[in-house]
Design goal:
Keywords: Cell outer membrane, Membrane, Receptor, Signal, TonB box, Transmembrane, Transmembrane beta strand, Transport. The relative contact order is 0.13. The chain has a single domain, classed as TonB-dependent receptor, beta-barrel domain (Maltoporin, Chain A, Beta Barrel). The protein is about 10% helix and about 50% strand. It has about 675 residues and is mainly beta. The longest helix is centred in the first third of the chain and has 16 residues.
Amino acid sequence: MFNSKFLILLVFTLSFIPHSRAEVLSADIRSPAKDSELSQESQEQHHEDDHEHEEEIEKIIVQATRSGRIANEQPIRVELINREEIEEKAAMRPGNISMLVAETGGVRMQTTSPALGSANIRLQGLYGRYTQLLADGLPLYGNQASSIGLLQIPPTDLGRVEIIKGSASSLYGGSALGGVINLVSRRPSDEFTGEMLLNATTRNGQDLTTYIEAPLSDSIKGSLTAGAHYQTAQDIDNDGWIDLAEYERYTARPRLFWEGNEGETLYATIGLMTENRVGGNTANGTVADGTFFKQSQESQRIDSGLVFTMPLLDSLTLNARASTMLQEHKHGYGKVIEDDQHESYLVETSLAGYNDKSDWVVGLAYQSEIYASDTLPKFNYSYEVPGVFGQLDYELSDQLTTSLSARLDEHSEYGTQFNPRVSLLYRPSDLTIRASFGRGYFATTPFVEEVEAVGLSKLEEIKNLQEEHAETASLDFTYTFEHIETSLTLFGSNVDNVTNLEAFSSNNDATFDRIKLVNAAGESKIRGSEVLLRYRWEDIKLTASYLYLDATEESENGQGRRKIALTPQHSAGFVAMWEQHGSFRTGFEAYYTGPQRLNDNPYINESRPYWHLGLMGEITIGRVSWFINFENLLNVKQTDEHPLLLPAGAPNGQWTTDIWSRNDGFIANAGIRIKFDG
């Protein structure tokens, strides 16, 4: 199955787990004095009620920025999704985190495979492959997480989610060109506690997730989350094509947290996942040429990670982190079978320090990304990326703080890459202003969004591709008055060397039957703004958001510019939640998606706007909660506008149009959540 590399690193990881007193803290890079402050805050937050939680949320130390600062003192804008919101979304979609992140302003889930339902995360209009997905600051899902991977991560053991929009290559290298989403795990308390969630849907899907946490000794605490998830194939519009892919998935993740007598901390985790997923034609269905087309993917993933911190002086801390990920896939695209393996490794060490005016960190990192195909070895690659990075946050005054970060990578394929970022924070009274500018790069692989849906069999061998570059900038205004918080963000990006698929004829005739990867001419330019309004009155919380995007690219014929496909210019959302902690919660949500330009769609050139409406409720009596959730109340389906199946196969081997709307129709789910302790 998996080779010896993982076993060696697994033994290395477990050998670092010491056996002495005290509780383990989070895996942030920060000073020892700040560690002790967070220890108290994290324990208080674990038991506080909902209103207290709202007041304390701004005291959370953000991991993803590396600076060790609390959220409202970060020069870099970080969106936080707290545990309360995670519990709400877990009742709506307990099997994966797609809904959890999709309903954040400026974030869009883009379906990349109509057959299997896979999707990636687009931040402020940038391509989904530019988003780095981390778990406790570690790339446990790979430096380029596959779109299907997003659907294989349950939210059960998450404490919060941190989102950085815009280039974060100065912090994390060539996988974070568009931003970072960091999934932060729950920290165990001093007592044995846990929960179990059972869920079932009207589309014959079932989920079972469990989470337990406990002190294992005076010095070590642990947690374990595990899940089983099932979905039967659903052809909702009876066109012979599966709209909800069939899958059977099992996951497990133990975590250990330790703290030594001298302030040392260690966090270690192992993750296991196996899934079989099937889509394409139903038993009696066919595609345009009259043949039966089945698409499938068998996945197995194992990962391991650790983060170690040790104070050297009163204001100096040594940090080390390492991770590995091994993943095996067996893809089926009709009669074509593709077997492959992905490997990802990280080793990093750094020093962090602080004084009255500044926080700083400098470090060395080594990343490796390996792809090996048993079927098509001409696409194999092995990227080795040693790098050095640094960051300085400096308080110029009580109101003005600046953050400077930079990273120098020596990429084995794309050479030397220097990526800086500068951010400013200005806080006069109740107004907070943040400005940020950064440069980043993306190390191109064969796995752009379109290739994930069709495989590599029709792709020409890659030649003369250049890395993708971007400059991103943002200006953010946040104003808080009593129970009202308002935010306006202006942002822009220029992206060079965007990698696209280009169809061509292998026989030099008029029939396009092959595809190749090329760097697009000109720049992709994205300009936009986000508006956010939050209001809280007693037990009622209202949130409204609006996103405007002007995203254009150079036309294929070189004559002017056109809108980037599958990128709505206007989108908006509204959420109303009424909750009495420990008693009930009920909520309503409405999301609007405007028209989008469509690529290679023979039926329409531009999509119609649509609304997504949802309604949920949960009642809690003691340790037991019953919940019910209704999604897509208007029963919106893309196939109500045009057929999903193409009248002829595309040059890349795809038999359907792209997904620009929903294809699952109305769906309801209900279940029970049981919390327990020792």
